[in-house]
């Protein structure tokens, strides 16, 4: 069967600032740091020190647990016939050290529908990888899955399934003309879909479900109250609300101010409302804050900055600050400006509230502008990443350059200059002979 990676196009970088020396002036170097920053749907490798700031981007989605990094990715599957389309997607977890991959999400409904079609139409053969299906197939059953977020060994996902058929006999498990939408959380170690109790423990899980159920009741109450206004849209919303039900296993894992939390999504039942979900107010689960897996995850999560539009990661001597920026050009969209800041008194900075941190902050260096949101930061030098894991990361970043049609990289040197640095951008496009990106220093 045809299977291909569907991660978005990659980023790899080569930017060099050209300068001339001026012996009497030396630009101060940023503090030494080496870290991975998850921003948007990509991962950026940032290295700072005497040579300046280097940033290398990749469409990798990484998970870290049990002291190891794993790549998480989505791949297409095609089980189609000429007159019947059956396409689905799987989620894989790949160990960066060994290269071994394991499927952690399988779309069994589409596969089963394809098998039933094959039994009902024994004269038809599955399409080969270089063959196309009919432009107007009699049957179509498709499934798509998105990675919502990853927290330690747990992955939150969203699945969308659709089906339609012109035949009188329904062969797909979804039903003719139906759509489904569901959320869930998977344990990357086993591929098992996780319940709130299994994730947060008995006390935390029961508390999360109770809070979620109250949020569901409050949302329905607000919708019904709006109906009394006589507004036609409010009336239609109240009628549609009857189709939603609370499902304790339909949720995503979230970060609730550095404590674990859950956002439940109430699915709709019935043919007319199929494919809809009602997002509920996120609920914190502080009862699970001391669980080992969350304690390890919390290290990578940001703390609030001096305002609601910034995130901060701190360690002795420095801070990484991510400020949300909405003033970019029309083609840039919302982004995050990241800077590394030297802290004169690290102990004072750690003990003071966010607003007072500016009093002890020292010099600041801009790292770059990244897609939003900034999700987490993994330090690679505190503690120091071992050589085998570093080689595995280099290999993963190099290989990810082939996920898209081009790659870019930027490097900012801190050499003395008599005129402003001039950035030279170099883009590489893949050709039939292929190419490989350089290794990360």
Oligomer status: single chain
Question: What's the number of extended β-strand segments?
Answer: 26
**What class would the helix/strand composition place it in?**
alpha+beta
- In helices, the fraction of residues equals 10-25%
* Individual helix count: 6
Parts with pLDDT < 50 across at least 5 consecutive residues:
1-25, 169-175, 355-360, 405-409, 415-441
Can you give the mean pLDDT? 81
Shape assignment? globular
Q: Main β-sheet: number of strands, strand sense, barrel status? A: 8 strands, mixed
Strand content: 35-45%
Cα-atom radius of gyration: 25 Å
End-to-end distance: 38 Å
What does this structure look like?
By secondary structure, the chain is of the alpha+beta class. The protein has a domain at 196-248 and 259-291. It has six helices and 26 strands. Strands 5, 6, 7, 8, 9, 10, 11 and 12 form an eight-stranded mixed sheet that branches. Strand 18 and strand 19 form a beta hairpin. Helix 2 runs antiparallel to helix 3. It is globular and about 75 Å long. Mean pLDDT is 81; it is low at 1-25, 169-175, 355-360, 405-409 and 415-441.
